[in-house]
Every structure is written in structure tokens, then in C-alpha cells.
Amino acid sequence: MEALYAITTGILTASGVYLTLRGRTFPVVVGLTLLSYAVNLFLFSMGGLTTHGAALVGTNDQYADPLPQALVLTAIVIGFAMTAFAIILAMRSRGDLGSDSVDGNRTDREDPRENKA
Amino acid sequence: MQHLPIFPVLLPLVVAIILLRKREGADPVRRTISITATALLAVVGFWLVTQVAGGETLVYRLGNWQAPYGIVLVADRLSAMMVFLTALLALGSIIHASGGEDNQGSNFHGLFHLQLMGINGAFLTGDLFNLFVFFEVLLLASYALLMHGGGKARVQAGVHYVVLNLAGSSLFLIALGVLYGTIGTLNMADMAERVSQLPADRQGLVRAGALLLLVVFGLKAAILPLYFWLPRAYSSAPAPIAALFSIMTKVGIYAILRVFTLIFGEQAGGLAHLAQPWLWWGGLATLAMATLAVLSARDLRMQISYFTLISIGTLLCGLGMESTDSRGAMLFYLVHTTLINGGLFLLADLIADQRGKVGTRIVRSRAFKYTTLLSALYMMGTVSSAGLPPLSGALAKAWLMSTATLSEGLWLWPLLLLSGLAGVVAASRAGSTVFWRHSNGERVSERLSRSKLVGAVLLLSAAPLLVILAGPIGGYTQATAEQVAATEQYRSAVLGNVTSVAPGASADAD
């Protein structure tokens, strides 16, 4: 299970980093979202992976570390708010700057129809 | 007073909630509430400083849970000083903002206090995960404030700032995950205890986690490869926000100082001083780049942003140096540079108001009325920032240079002095253009907003005041440096029930 978990987190991170480095705001926002998913998975696993263990001491011999679960909840909430903000910002910059490039100074040359939509 | 350490977090939160109730406009009532609350925060900050000046470490356990399990707020000399400094800077900014800037968009005052809450929380928390949470609070508020009033330049700078900081937050969480997985705790005092007993096979991972943290804090503090967002963001932000932002980079500096002396400091065994070389060379490189860049600035606010970068380079060098004395000098420089650079941003806005369409660009403009007053203030600020005697910058830089060892001095002295020279050249060129080169025609007399002026003067008056009060303040920063170096006191205060007294307790403080 560890290997599957690690590979999933790795692929998510790689995709996130790749998309974050793109030149347009939409892929960047998607990239940041993927990155935050990967981070949440990573945080969740930081206390070690336990199967069939409740986060309660005393009910079972095996119990999961409750702290990462609490932390990942916080991280999810914050990440969610940040993503919402980033999307609004991307739309705002598209409207204000007339381009969805992250630098805001190039016009949309690739697809002129985008402007009308 | 037992609950004092949580006041600087609760007060802005409550005020922010009150102020957020109505979105639009900034009427006199809300301005009064906002300014009064900030002044009150300054009083609380000063009170906190007087409480800890003797060397006690105040520990506030939320819900009275014992330290490694519960959440703690810790106020020692360093935290108290930063909280007080934040409040002073905020007071100047908010008075300036009440001159009309707060009316450019909605919710200015509420967001301003939320940001103060985040900053104060970051300074006071004794737990790495809570440091992350408070970072997010201050960042979210700063995203909105940076784009307050809108406009192309702000949105453009905002996209970079937001994306970079979101990526930074992800890195922060990864670092926290690695550190928790290997050390087993996120309470800073507890981490410091455990890191010394770490088995050798885990040291590599911990080192990776620690250096990831350095990258995150370096992004906040703007170390060389990570500073490119700063000039644009600071120069396009509304003036009071740019002024408040000059404490934001110091949040990064504070976090580096705290984490890399408390957790990865003297006692950390194989991991001791692992950030030191990065900070030293990174600081020197930042200093060198900013020195060149300040000469190339074509806009007053851009120039002040590079002044800020010079100061960050200097601070990082101070962090990277070996002796505790240089840490004390660096903290004195931090107080000086935060207030002066904040004041300069406010002053630039006053100048822009007078010059009309030209704004802060360094080009010929129409003649304006308050040239003498504004140019005198500008000269005071830049002379102090560049580090010419007799103002505070010279004192701070001289103290820092005097604490350098020979091999450190060989690098630090020339770079620091050259950065001062570049600052003087850039400021005198900009000043002579802005204040003396006018197009022919009528002298325009725009209204000089009184509250904007008061805000700027309040912050710039730090330049002479820091010289006059250099004795007590220097003594306090020196004692702070000694306390930061004596980590066992912090650990025993947080983990045990004792409030022990620092070795440098006899040093007098204001």
C-alpha cells in the first residue's frame, strides 16, 4: 500500500508542478489545486499509514495517529479557500488585463475565438 | 496579567469582525474605531515588552492543555518586540490610510486588522503548524489588501504574489509533514528537545525538511533567488499597505531566526547551524543585487522597494554571522529599517498626490507647493535608510559592522558600504529630479492631506528617535539576542511550569 500511496502522491505533485509552471492562469490554478491535493495526501501519511485503526487509544491495539488527520482537515479548509480566491483572481485578471497570461501583457494570439466567448 | 499574550491576537480579530459588518465606505466612525484599536494594540504591545523585558518568558496555554499536546503562545523579548513594532507601523499606516486611501475599495479597515491578527499570531505562536495557519491568515488578508482599489498594475502584481505564495504554502506543508514524520511533534520547544536525540538515519530527512522550511521563509523574507515578486508587489500596492508589508518580510526573518536558533541551533547535534551558510551567502547576494537594482529604479516607490531589499540582505547577513552580538545589532537594524521604509512608502504617496498625473515616476513634473517640507522628509528618510550619520541607519549599520569577525568583515564591510553609497546616489538623483526639475508654469497647490502627513511623519520620526533612545533600545535588542541564543530557557518555560529568568536579565530595557 505504501508504494501505491507514494506513487499517487508523486504523480499528483509532478502534474501539479508542471501545470503551475504554465503560462496561463487556468492551468496554473488547476496545478495549484493538484499540488494541494498531493500535499494533503502527503500530510495524511506523515504519521505512518495504519489500516483498520481508529484514531482512538484503547479501543484497539492498532490506532492511527490523530494529529495528521486534524492537520490535514485544517490544510484542506485553507487550501479550499485559497483555490476559490485564486480562481476569482484569475477571472479578474482576465477581465482587467484582457489576457489570461500570468504576466498579463500578452494578447491571446493562439485562439482569437476565445476573446468573443 | 495572565491573559496578556493572547491580547495581540484577539484584539484585532474582534475589531475586524466589528469593522467587517458593513462592506462599503469608510466613514469617520469606522476610522475612529480602527485607529483607536491600533493605538490600543500599540499600548498592549508596549505592555508586553515591559512584562518580558526582565527576561521572563510568558507562556499562554490555550485551554490549559500541557505544552507538547496543547497549543501554546509564547511571548519572550523577541516576540514582544516584534508585536510592538508591528503595532507602531500599523498605527502610522492606518492614520495615513484614513486620509482617503481606505475609501478606494471596500473593507479596508476590517482586512487591515485581520492582517494584524495574522502577523501578531505568527510572532507569538510556539507551534510550527500554527505558524502555518497564521501565515495563511496574514496572506489571505494581504492578497485582498494588495489589490485594494484595483487597477491593472495591482492585479498583475497580485497574480504573481498569490500564485507564488500558494506554492510556498504547499512547500510549507510538505516541510511540516516531513518534520512531523521524523521528529514526531510540531511544538517548537518539543522539537528542539527531540532533534538532539535523533537517530543518525533520520538526520537526512530532517535536514531536507528544515531546508524546505528555509525556502518557505526565504520566499516570505525575499532572499535572492526568491525575491523577484517583491519590487512589483510593493511598488504597486496602496501606500499604507506597502508600508504595512515592510513588516511582512520581517515575519520571514523572524521565522528563520526562531526556527534555526531554537530547533536547529547550538544543541541540534549533527544538524546544528545548518542554515547559517545559506543565510550568509544568500544575504550577501541579495545585498549585491539590490545595490545594483536601486540604481536602476525609475520610480520612487520602486526605489523604496529596493531599499527594502537592501535592508533584507543586511538582515540576512546579520542572521548568518556567528556572534550573538551581531544578532543584537541585526535586531536593532530591523526596528530601524521597518519603520523608516514604511515611512518612505507613505511619503512617496504624499509626493505623488502633489505631482498629479506623473505620480512617483522620477521625471520632470509640474511645480508644487510643499516642496520644502516633503523634500526635507524625503532626505531624512533616505539618509537614514542609506546609513549616513547622524540618523538611525548609520548607528545600526556601524554596530552590525563592528560585530563582524575579520573573515566576515572582508565580505560584509565593502558590500554594506557600497549599498549605502548606491542608496545615496539613487536617492539624491531621484530627489533632485522630483523636487527641483519642474516644467514652467503655475505652481500648483494641491491640498496636503493632514492625516497622510501625520502617518508619514510618525514613522519617519523613528530616524532621530532611535538615535536618541539608542541606549535602552540597543540594550533591549542585545538582551533579546542573548535570550534567543539561550534556548534551554525557552524550552523549560514551554515544557515545564517554571518561568525561568534569562542570563541577560539585568540589561535595562525600555
TrEMBL record, chain A:
Disordered, as annotated region: 95-117
Keywords of the record: Cell membrane, Membrane, Transmembrane, Transmembrane helix
Family: Belongs to the CPA3 antiporters (TC 2.A.63) subunit C family.
Residue spans crossing the bilayer: 6-21, 28-50, 70-91
InterPro entries on file: CPA3_antiporter_subunitC (IPR050601), NUOK/Mnh_C1-like (IPR039428)
Alphabetical list of Gene3D superfamilies matching this protein: 1.10.287.3510
Organism in which the protein naturally occurs: Kushneria pakistanensis
Subcellular location per the Swiss-Prot or TrEMBL entry: Cell membrane
Keyword Glycoprotein tagged: no
UniProt membrane topology term: Multi-pass membrane protein
Protein name as catalogued: Na+/H+ antiporter subunit C
Major place of residence: membrane
UniProtKB/TrEMBL annotation, chain B:
NADH:quinone oxidoreductase/Mrp antiporter transmembrane domain: residues covered: 126-417
InterPro entries named in the record: CPA3_Na-H_Antiporter_D, NADH_UbQ_OxRdtase, ND/Mrp_TM
Keyword Lyase belongs to the record: no
Membrane association type: Multi-pass membrane protein
Swiss-Prot/TrEMBL keywords: Cell membrane, Membrane, Transmembrane, Transmembrane helix
Domain of life of the organism encoding this protein: Bacteria
Subcellular locations according to the entry: Cell membrane; Membrane
Transmembrane intervals: 35-59, 80-99, 119-146, 158-183, 208-230, 242-265, 277-297, 304-321, 333-352, 373-391, 411-432, 453-473
Assigned protein family: Belongs to the CPA3 antiporters (TC 2.A.63) subunit D family.
Name of the molecule in the record: Monovalent cation/H+ antiporter subunit D
Organism, scientific name: Kushneria pakistanensis
